[in-house]
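So, who can interpret the following?
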Amino acid sequence: MKIMNGYWVPGTGYKTDYAAQAYEVTTTPHSITVLATTQVIRHRGMTLTGPNLEITYSSTAKDVIKVHIAHFKGTVDNRPRFELNEDQGYTPTIRNEVDFAELVSGDTRLVIAKGESWNVEYFYKDKRLTGAGWRSTTYVKENAYQSKLRVLAQAEDNFFDFAQDPRDAYVLEKLDLGVGECIYGFGEKFTTFVKNGQNVEVWNADGGTCTEQSYKSIPFYLSSNGYGILVNSSDRVSFEVGSEVVSKVSFAIPGEELEYFIIGGADLKEVLVNYTTLSGKPALPPAYSFGLWLSTSFTTNYNEETVNSFIDGMAERDIPLQVFHFDCFWMKEHEWCNMEWDTRQFPDPQGMLGRLKAKGLEICVWINPYVGQRSKLFDIGVKNGYFIKKPDGSVFQTDFWQPGMAIVDFTNPEACKWYGDLLKTLFQMGIRNIKTDFGERIPTNVVYHGGQDPIQMHNYYTYLYNKTVVEALEDFYGKNETCLFSRSATVGGQKYPVHWGGDCFASYSAMAETIRAGLSLCSSGFGFFSHDIGGFEATATPDLYKRWCAFGLLSTHSRLHGSGSYRVPWLFDDEASDVLRFYTKLKGRLMPYLFAQAVHTHETGVPMMRSMVVEFTGDTACKYLDTQYMLGDSLLIAPVMNDRGIAEFYVPDGLWTDIVTGDTYTGGRYYTRQCSYTEMPILARENSIIGFGAFGSNVVYDYVDGAEFVIYGIQDGAEATVDVYDSNAQKALTITAVRKGNTVTVTGTPTDKPYTVRLATQLEATPMPLNGAPQVELVLN
């Protein structure tokens, strides 16, 4: 939100008042409260007018500082609230001295200057993170003319009954942006990965993958300077990232209050650990979900015969398949959702699902939170008050998407139970995965059963939608036994994985957009990310399809899905089946490594798919990389994104080894490499141990029995360690390798499962002893 005309004067229609003086500072054992006047008070007469701002600084978790700015405090509080894990009993260290006040939470510190200049600074240990000085903390009022202009602009964009926001006041904060400091995150953003220079509006929208709109808008950003900011509001938060004042990040919300958290950490991974401790850790998707998913696609024609031809065709070509997904038309047209199979296409759904399960497949079906007027559920929902309503008490309906559709009101506990019970009829048929589509186009000129503010519910709705579905799944199957495939999200949505990147086109530019979106999302607390292999809209060329297969299978989750055409590989060319087979089997073999990394993500909140800067915060080159990423701690993935077959990538310090070709790369420089379709760079970090399991056709198998553990680039004096978990997330094995000179001593925890170890430079693997304390010595060539 830009409010200024240049730097010195407010824009037409705006009045701005800035915190100018910490006029009064009071403390409790848990907080510091500042009465901030908007002018320096020099005599009593200056206290007779306002506005003033009351700012409270506190901490409810280690290395997390909470800032609450209030103008008027008597407003109606009907806000939906993020489910944050705050410890109200946490006690920071607080000092109130003559010249300053200080709050210390862990290693993160706040210093408030007293006197006649407004200045607030944040530190991690002795490193300054950011601060708010002159003309930073602001109360903004619109005049009647500006309010009218804004309402008119909103009316022009009112294609889905969005109410014109009547609020004419804003609270705005500006935080310093240092030289060379880069900003990331804000959820799933398809724009440039480094957000400097961008205006970011936190407003969920179904806008595809090639605009500034996004399905998963998160009011959280991550700074290369080593901190994160969460604005604690589901409202339309507007960020200007060096785009109004080039040396500031500003954020504003309508109304009379603003609350945000500044989150410190030793590096960006620790910042994300602290952020997800506050907002929720990603759940652990079941092991089977890491295998290959195949879909019917969207508007294609399909029935049981079509489905079987796809599944049998994959088996005939020796391409392991784990999950089959039925998209929208498993239900009858015009009736989404009715939660019933279209028996014209699937006359024996229970029998069909049983036959698919007998082939070793898990099943996923598509849903959305809408109910078309022709659905048998529509009249039930109207009668019982299960739908969002208009201000006049009638049910909100629209013809956009499904004719006459209504929207389930998940603030109504009875509606949640009803919706969950409907889903359980599907679970009883053996379905254990749900694609929770949509949830972005939520109107604001409506009334909710719970009385929540409808504008602030727009972004929050998706959280209640996905939570309802997850709770139904967990009630039926138990925790960590199922997963979603979800498109929309807000803060806390990472607790309900997996999320996919929406409706991308079949193009290399869309492939790049998808990577940027995944890296941004996973810089915002989300741990797992998927996308439509080959693109959703249009049909990929054989070249693009094969390159996207490589990228897709080296993402955390891998799904073949399209819009108007099928995504089975033999429809592209013969080689496409070979490429898909190669990467599907490689991912299956990597499950000892991948599932351990998934467990780590679940336990810590460090994303499994992460940007280079998150992993290598101190490497300046990594600050700007958005065409490659780390998959877990030890694998660098550099997708090929052009029809020339050229991979361009940067390698951080150390020795890196391609796990497919065996090529080695010295860190600290850029590389260009010509790649066949099965040679996408997959580089193992030095001093790492990667497990390759005895994969057959199912990714749920014993990750120790028959596995080979390869030690990559171990340096003299270094130690490498790897933990291996079984498919139930129980630790099964720990292997440690220590190098002294040319000898590498490998030890493992006791197990009765046979496995082997080898150095990456060796061709022959060495079996580990099964008795006593397993240990072998490997000699470098």
